[in-house]
Amino acid sequence: MEVMNACDTLRRVENPGALLQEARDKGCAVWLILDPLCHQEALAQLYDNEPDAEKTILFLKTMLAESSAVSPRLAALSLDSPMERWINDSKASGWGFYFTSDAPFSEILAHLRSLVFIKRGGKRVIFRFWDGRILSRICQGIPEDIPMLLGPILRILTQDEGDGWVCIDRDGDAYMAEAHRPGTVLPSPWYAFTDRHDRLFHDKRPGIVARNIVESLFNEKMEYGLALPPNEALSTFVARHVNRGLPLGLWGLEALELFVRCSLRHGECFPDAQAMPVLSPLARTPLDEDASVAVMRRFCNQRGSHV
């Protein structure tokens, strides 16, 4: 066992099954939260392998309710569930996590839904806490946040960026030392990302931002048929244009999402400041992000299509 943070609340483990069984033996229930975007077969596997478990859509009763098609699902995990074998064999990245608790499921669900959005720089942004790679990085780098992030959850088992298994125990060595006491669910968003989080995720920002933008655009693509270049998936298009926008000096989620939207509507030439002087804020060095956002808000709504 390798302890990975200063509070002894996160450790690297070999066998998640043994720790799940330990939780059951101590009176905890075990659940799975699964991201359907992790693998094209993820949802089908969940319904096939856990046919009797109720599947709860995380995004319902949140501001992301209209994106339920891409919402993570929560389900009670049966003993020796085939889902454990599928997760091990499929090598799906960012699939979610197992979690254990002696709290009522309604309290757990309310807490998790309160984390769907967080505060960052005075704005509300999506927090992909269900991605074990993101959650384990925060719990390793800012271990003092573990108790409030886990809330009524006592233990999480997930995989980090190296596909190694990690165990996050809310109370460290005091796991299950006290019976559950009902807590207060805070109104969302309550958790705030700070400069410490930015430093933790600086190298991962393009992928994280791209994933958030894909989720934001998914329903519009389905409902309004947003045009994409031939033979290019929405996720690939978004990732490519996020990586175009970052070198320009765009950093905020709103700025990068507007950059992607403008590229969707006006084609690969965006932003051609010589041909369209109105876009000159995007060509300045250093770039003024507020001015660029204002220009893109106007420009994004103009008629246009891919070329």
What's a quick, concise take on this entry?
By secondary structure, this protein is α+β, with helices and mostly antiparallel strands.
Fold and architecture overview:
This protein is α+β, with helices and mostly antiparallel strands and 307 residues long. The chain has two domains: 2-193, no CATH class; 202-300, no CATH class. The chain has helices spanning 16-25, 42-49, 82-90, 105-114, 132-141, 146-150, 195-201, 205-224, 234-248, 253-266, 289-300; strands at 2-3, 10-13, 29-34, 56-57, 73-76, 96-101, 117-120, 123-126, 155-159, 165-169, 192-193. The protein has an eight-stranded antiparallel sheet, sandwiched between helices. It has a three-stranded mixed sheet with strand order 8-7-11. A hairpin with a 6-residue loop joins strand 1 (2-3) and strand 2. The chain is elongated. The model has no long low-confidence stretch (mean pLDDT 87).
Key attributes of the depicted protein:
three-stranded mixed beta sheet, elongated, 2 domains, eight-stranded antiparallel beta sheet, 307 residues, 39% helix, alpha+beta, 11 helices
